[in-house]
Amino acid sequence: MNLKEIKELIKLIDSSSLSEFHLEKDDIKLQIKKESTVKIIKDEKALTLNKEEHISEIDALKEERIKDKEDENLHLVKCPIVGVFYSSPKPDSPPFVKVGDKIKKGDVLCIVEAMKLMNEITSDVDGEVVEILVENQSPVEYGQPLFKIRKV
Amino acid sequence: MKDKILDILKSSRDYVSGEDISSSLGISRAAVWKHIKGLKEEGYEIESSSKKGYRLLESPDVLTYKELKNLLTTNYIGRKIVYLESTTSTNDIAKEYAEKGEKEGLVVIAEVQTKGRGRMGRRWITPGRDSISITILLRPEISPYMAPSITPVLAVSVVEMLREITGFEIGIKWPNDVVLDRKKVCGILTEMSAEIDVVKYIIVGIGINVNQETFDNEIENIATSLRKYSGKKYDRKAILSGILNRFERNYELFKKEGIGPFIEDLKKYSVLIGKKVLISGINEEYEAEAIDIDDDGALLVRLENGDVKKVLSGDVSIKGFYGYNSK
């Protein structure tokens, strides 16, 4: 096998899709590795890196989805009229609900007063009071969220 | 059957023979006699004469459907009446009916309320047979934010009717009191159950002081009655049926056109406009001059610094009213 033949072989392999070539003939042992192979390896590494990134992205998405799911379970009770928010039926009595209270659909959560109309706001879901978003005896607007309820 | 006999007696000012009653209703004379006895037990004064038959002398002063139906011109308000001798509070009973799905127009009436309520759990005293204590159940298909205007619509209806019957200068102390002689003659407590876009129901409680001769020391300066003011006894049935008739008309108009058509009346009957008032809010108290009722039926006041403020909540006191004297 002369140099010319070897050159020819290299050319051939180069233009081929082979990445590695081994030849043993008589006393000759030829091993050709394409540079591109290395490149590919590099790319693969890059790919692996990307994958890792992807995975963390996917994790983030998953987390978001879980959060969304939690948000789906969180229900906001909104105010139907402009008025004043009262957390208890009388000034000196205990509040209708506290954070942590388990409530049922139809339970009274608060009173909103407007022009002496006492509006009992009832829960439209079963659940647990997570947060009371308005202070007792403060003015409230139409559509303002009053309670955060975790649905069950 | 008893009610049919009563109808016959009511439709005739003179005696009706037992035989006529028994033949027109297809029951025995003994049965007629039994029912007449029952009516007497309910408080109807019926004269019986063996020759002439029966004659209704006087109906009891009770606010039953039997007694009100001939006076009502309504289509649905008061067409079902729950009449109770005594109850905790007519609003509570009406609420129970509402929760069970009762139709609009139900009226709960009680002669005695043991736990009559005003706003914020304040007491409303209902002595037997001297006053009118009722609650009307409504289910309007309106947005909840329109609902607070029902109170002034009812107040206008009450004032119009009481003025028509008594001729007294009766006014509205914004937004839910009807006043005579600077004292409360009628109070209105409106309660609603609503979610963000839907009114489930509204109950309007009305207490009218009609024939009380005296009041407890506690409320002497605050309350009056038609009788205490004039010395004259008034017919509760005429007042109540008149108010229900008037209110149904006004309520129908309100559902179509809102509070707009009532604003002029609210201004005309207002005892506040032009007066110095004390607004006692929850966290604040300030003096101001009541200047107008706005398009929503809310009270407008001018503060000392000239700013105009819309009052949506809080108690409004005026000098000389309800025993209040400002400095």
TrEMBL record, chain A:
**Domain named Lipoyl-binding: residues:** 74-150
Coiled coil region boundaries: 44-71
Going by the UniProt record, its keywords in alphabetical order are: Biotin, Coiled coil, Fatty acid biosynthesis, Fatty acid metabolism, Lipid biosynthesis, Lipid metabolism
Is Magnesium tagged as a keyword?
Answer: no
Transmembrane ranges? none
**What GO MF terms are annotated?**
acetyl-CoA carboxylase activity; DNA binding
Keyword Lipid biosynthesis carried by entry:
yes
CDD domains per record = biotinyl_domain
Q: Which Gene3D superfamilies match?
A: 2.40.50.100
Q: Mind telling me which GO cellular component terms the entry cites?
A: acetyl-CoA carboxylase complex
Q: Which GO terms describe its biological process?
A: fatty acid biosynthetic process; regulation of DNA-templated transcription
The pathway to which it is assigned is: Lipid metabolism; fatty acid biosynthesis
What function is annotated for this protein?
This protein is a component of the acetyl coenzyme A carboxylase complex; first, biotin carboxylase catalyzes the carboxylation of the carrier protein and then the transcarboxylase transfers the carboxyl group to form malonyl-CoA.
Q: What is this protein called?
A: Biotin carboxyl carrier protein of acetyl-CoA carboxylase
Automatic annotation (TrEMBL), chain B:
Q: Which organism is it from?
A: Fonticella tunisiensis
Q: Which EC numbers characterise this protein's activity in its record?
A: 6.3.4.15
Summarize which parts of the chain are annotated to bind DNA, as ranges.
Answer: 18-37
Tell me yes or no: is Transferase among this UniProt entry's keywords. no
What this chain does, per the record? Answer: Acts both as a biotin--[acetyl-CoA-carboxylase] ligase and a repressor.
Protein name listed in UniProt: Bifunctional ligase/repressor BirA
Cross-referenced InterPro entries? aa-tRNA-synth_II/BPL/LPL (IPR045864), ArsR-like_HTH (IPR011991), Bifunct_BirA (IPR030855), Biotin_CoA_COase_ligase (IPR004408), BPL_C (IPR003142), BPL_LPL_catalytic (IPR004143), HTH_11 (IPR013196), Transcriptional_repressor_C (IPR008988)
Q: Name one GO cellular component term.
A: cytoplasm
